[in-house]
């Protein structure tokens, strides 16, 4: 089973709202990722958690706040977003993060976010 | 030079033909290579991964890796209209701490 689940599937929020995206995997993976994808572009890495610790932050604005409560769960807290933040937000997981490792990343179905 | 380069397409092939998708990468230390398929409005789906030089076959898909030429390809035999999608080549970057670096994707259209 290579399933990563994400909720909600769709989210519309105003620029003053606070919302959260959720991601879950039960594959025993120890690395989890948040990506942002705009139309006709490849996924763009935002954050990496390795063994529940933040290991990579790709200079993402502070209006995006990740959280990894345990090894199976990953959240992305959203606050004061801009319309240009509208995109497909993807969660992924892999066994580990290792520059020399061969660890496949599996993506969830994504959350389609619209900021009005 | 982009780290991972693909022809953006669109690549159009008739049903039943072989579709050939190509990808080059710049990080000579890369060890792990992946092909994802992405249908419009959906998330990327991992369809092939390859770690050693040579060919790897899975059903109608064959991934080919040539580390000396820094080249990886995906062949789709007996292409079907349902194969119409964007194919993303991705490479784990040794120089960037294990990040997965994507190419821009090749749009494939299989015509009935």
Give structural attributes.
heterodimer; A: 116 residues; mainly beta; seven-stranded mixed sheet; four-stranded antiparallel sheet; 11 strands; 0% helix; globular; B: 112 residues; six-stranded mixed sheet; five-stranded antiparallel sheet
Q: Judging from the principal axes of the Cα atoms, what is the shape of chain A?
A: globular
Seen as an oligomer or otherwise, the chain set is: heterodimer
Helix content of chain A: under 10%
Number of strands of chain A: 11
Mean pLDDT across residues of chain B: 94
**Major beta sheet of chain A, specifics?**
7 strands, mixed
Outline of chain B, from the CA principal axes? globular
Instruction: List the helices and strands of chain A in order.
Output: EEEEEEEEEEE
State Rg of chain A. 13 Å
% residues in beta strands of chain A: over 45%
The structure class of chain B reads mainly beta
Q: Tell me which protein chains meet in the greatest interface and how many residues each side has.
A: A-B, 24 and 25 residues
């Amino acid at each position: 089973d290579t399933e990563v689940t994400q909720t909600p599937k769709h989210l519309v929020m105003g620029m003053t709202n606070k919302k959260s995206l959720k991601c879950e995997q039960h594959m025993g993976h120890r690395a989890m990722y948040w990506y942002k994808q705009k139309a006709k572009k490849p996924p763009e890495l935002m954050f990496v958690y390795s063994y529940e610790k933040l290991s990579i932050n790709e200079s993402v604005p502070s209006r995006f706040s990740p959280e990894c409560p345990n090894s199976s769960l990953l959240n992305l807290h959203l606050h004061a977003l801009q319309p240009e933040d509208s995109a497909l937000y993807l969660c992924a997981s892999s066994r580990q993060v290792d520059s020399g490792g061969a660890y496949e990343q599996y993506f969830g179905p994504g959350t389609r976010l619209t900021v009005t | 030079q982009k780290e991972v380069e693909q022809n953006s397409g669109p690549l159009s092939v008739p049903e039943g033909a072989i579709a050939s998708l190509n990808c080059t990468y710049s990080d000579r230390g890369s060890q792990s290579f992946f092909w994802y398929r992405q249908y419009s409005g959906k998330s990327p789906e991992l369809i092939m991964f390859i770690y050693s030089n040579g060919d790897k076959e899975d059903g109608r898909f064959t991934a080919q890796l040539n580390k000396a030429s820094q080249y990886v390809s995906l062949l789709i035999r007996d292409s079907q209209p349902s194969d119409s999608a964007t194919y993303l080549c991705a490479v784990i970057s040794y120089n960037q701490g294990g990040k997965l670096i994507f190419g821009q994707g090749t749009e494939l259209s299989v015509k009935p």
